[in-house]
Amino acid sequence: MDHDDGFRTERLRLRPWRVADAAFQRRLWQERDDRVPARRRITPDGHPTVAELEQRIRTDERTPAPGLFVVEFATSAEAVGYCGLVANSVGVPQEPELAFEFLRASWGQGFATEAARVIVDDAASHGYGHLAATVRAWNAASLHVLDKLGFVDTGEREPDPVHGDSLLLRLRL
Ligand SMILES: CC(C)(COP(=O)(O)OP(=O)(O)OC[C@H]1O[C@@H](n2cnc3c(N)ncnc32)[C@H](O)[C@@H]1OP(=O)(O)O)[C@@H](O)C(=O)NCCC(=O)NCCS
Question: Is 101's pLDDT higher than 60?
Answer without folding.
Answer: yes
